[in-house]
């Protein structure tokens, strides 16, 4: 697992965040919303705006086709730290918790839920496995639904993957990672593709800021075309690129400097002060 822990501050962040992630306060512990956490812990936050009752984002969930492959990408390639894994979830309680809305919609349509890719956790015909991976300020949960006779980890998933992962589709979501300010962003994207390819994940692909007529042209594009740096307007200082992960999931990588960094910093401080009141 390639994780750079040479930076003491980063090491301490990971230690603290990992210790509280499953308790649901990873985001608050690493972003400094201590006043809101304290109020919630003492039972003071009971009424009022919903936002005042939150502690931040705890995790992003990603349903995968191949658990081992996805786990390798998020730990070995991107350097996340495994918090825990659990699995073989089945039964009425977990089925209703996760899939009641899908069951009701299937009933409304008068179709078998299985034809719509809804697993049967109720009877145990299908099972759910999960793994949690910690990054500095958020957790990613990997989920795999499989048939009961399918081994955990690798192998086949219950439902076919959704091929429509373009960010233009309504309901589509993406996971965004911060790139450190002192990192060469273009080189990072080059290395991301190279490290993924070494592990057989040639489907991990990042966009370029220039058009390509073929996959070969995309690969041969100059290094400085791998990121889009915005240098004017309200987003001045924001650098980004979109990429596909090993499961076809939509990823984004960003650096936030200059004006954009000040805007987000000021907004964070305003919210922190509001929650502290």
From TrEMBL:
Keyword check for Lyase:
yes
Q: Where is the Glyoxalase/fosfomycin resistance/dioxygenase domain?
A: 57-107
Q: Which PROSITE patterns match?
A: TAT
Keyword annotations for this protein, in alphabetical order, are: Lyase
Q: Which GO terms describe its molecular function?
A: lyase activity
**Lineage top rank: taxon:** Bacteria
Task: State whether keyword ATP-binding applies.
Answer: no
Protein name, entry field: Lactoylglutathione lyase
Q: Which organism is it from?
A: Duganella aquatilis
